[in-house]
Specification:
This protein has 457 residues and is an alpha/beta fold. The strands form three sheets. An eight-stranded mixed sheet has the order 6-5-7-1-8-9-4-10, with helices on both faces. Strands 11-12-13 form a three-stranded antiparallel sheet.
Length: 457
């Protein structure tokens, strides 16, 4: 591709991003934006705005021992069985667990398990993968197993085909990592700060009116704005936008207002004065994320989960049960929020367009609740994935009550010896496959691992 063509492609992407921001501020869906762009900038640009070739993703990083809390939400199958008659095992709801009917591999849930109402084909997949990285704030044995390329950056690179105002957001100390074709992450201190980020991003997008590289795209930007205003059919559409700066200010104000967290949002996510601060922060980030997804403003968010190193968790069982319950309410609130929002390009609920990953440094031992030690059998680790209907569900590998550890063969899905590195590569490949909606060709840009046994038929 010549430099002239490269510049034109960048300008076209900029026009699409700006148009999506403008349409979001004016309350237009992606399909309506594409219709306007077809008239003002041509069918190629309209198709780029209307297509959504990938799923959106959220990546929860539960470090410094925080991953252990999720072991209570999706316990190892045999550990939950053993805990029903032996109180030494670290499961807080002994005897209250059950198997999910219809998952591809066995999956155990309990009263505090999120997403329990989802059909079997959309339940959690748990991959034994990587290694225990106790007290590491940026664990990478799973997420950077594909030749040092980051799973998060691979996701963002795949999602780059679907233009977004801010392609990927990293909250707190979360890091994107690197992969070919990945955009830079926008970094914000907390989930609440995502609102201000989009305010600023919309302004920058509006500024493109003054810096388009090609005259035809420059004209198309102004024509698109006028057409979007007519399509919106509201009083504000009569306001003249004489300069790009005034347009940007309008967009920023509207986007910020629509992303704000309300009391109703907090109630829907079960967040109140009793919710632990780090779980409330996760919930607030997910509230804004759901709204940003609905407005086509971002494709991926990396966010901190619990990170409190819960060694004494089982010394206070009521408090531990409360933490697990809070996590359930927040995650179910997010899923319910997305279920009530329609993905404009596909016409499906946004809950069906999500890939969610949960990883961390150590899940702590599943063999004893005494001081809930960091060591795991065979130095194992695991990652939870909500595959959006693209992946086989249930536990792939696992730990038994005797401490035996199994992995899985990604080509068949059957159990095999635990090989943390190889199974981490397969797990990350499966995440990429789910995000790419099963486009194996695109996944092969990053991994050639055969995951035939992990993907949904």
């Amino acid at each position: 591709m010549s430099k002239r063509d490269q510049d034109r492609e960048l300008s076209r992407r900029a026009l699409v991003k700006w148009s999506l921001a403008a349409g979001a501020a004016l309350g237009l869906g992606r399909g309506r934006i594409a219709e306007v762009l077809e008239r003002t900038a041509g069918s190629g640009v309209a198709q780029a705005a209307g297509d959504l070739p990938t799923k959106r993703s959220v990546h929860i990083r539960a470090v410094t021992g925080g991953l252990a809390w999720f072991q209570l939400l999706w316990p190892h199958n045999d550990i939950a069985d053993a805990a029903a008659t032996n109180a030494t095992f670290p499961y807080h709801r002994p005897g209250q667990h059950q198997r999910v009917a219809g998952t591809d591999r066995p999956l155990t849930i309990g009263p505090d398990t999120p997403f329990a109402a989802l059909p079997a084909r959309r339940q959690i997949t748990a991959y034994m993968a990587g290694e225990n990285e106790t007290h590491e704030t940026q664990p990478d044995s799973i997420t950077q197993s594909l030749g040092g390329k980051s799973m998060f950056a691979i996701a963002a690179a795949l999602q780059a085909q679907a233009p977004a105002v801010v392609p990927v957001i990293a909250v707190g100390d979360s890091k994107l990592g690197s992969a070919p074709g990945a955009p830079a992450a926008a970094v914000v201190p907390t989930g609440d700060d995502i609102v201000g980020l989009f305010n600023s991003a919309a302004s920058r997008a509006g500024g493109l009116l003054a810096t388009g590289a090609h005259a035809d795209l420059y004209r198309a930007q102004f024509a698109t704005l006028a057409a979007l205003n007519r399509a919106a059919e509201r009083p504000t559409t009569k306001v003249p936008y004489a300069t790009a700066r005034s347009a940007a200010g309008f967009l920023g104000t509207n986007l910020a207002a629509r992303l704000q967290i309300t009391a109703a949002d907090l109630a829907a996510y079960g967040i109140d004065g009793t919710t632990r601060a780090d779980i409330a922060a996760l919930g607030r980030a997910l509230i804004v994320t759901a709204k940003a997804f609905a407005m086509n403003l971002t494709s991926s968010v990396i966010v901190p989960g619990p990170r409190d190193d819960p060694h004494p968790a089982f010394a206070n069982l009521p408090a531990t049960t409360a933490v697990a319950g809070s996590l359930k309410r927040v995650l179910d609130g997010f899923m319910n929020h997305l279920a009530g929002l329609t993905d404009d390009p596909t016409g499906r609920p946004l809950s069906e367009e999500l890939v969610l990953t949960i990883d961390g440094d150590t899940p702590k031992t599943p063999l004893s609740r005494q001081n809930w030690l960091d060591d795991t059998p065979a130095n194992s680790n695991w990652m939870f994935v909500l595959g959006g209907g693209m992946l086989r569900t249930g536990w792939f590998g696992g730990v038994t009550r005797t401490g035996a550890v199994t992995g899985f063969d990604p080509a068949t899905g059957q159990e095999r010896s635990y090989q943390g590195d190889a199974q981490a590569e397969a797990a990350c490949t499966a995440v990429a496959y789910a995000i790419a909606r099963g486009d194996t060709r695109r996944v092969q840009d990053f991994s050639r691992v055969d995951i035939s046994g992990l993907v949904a038929p």
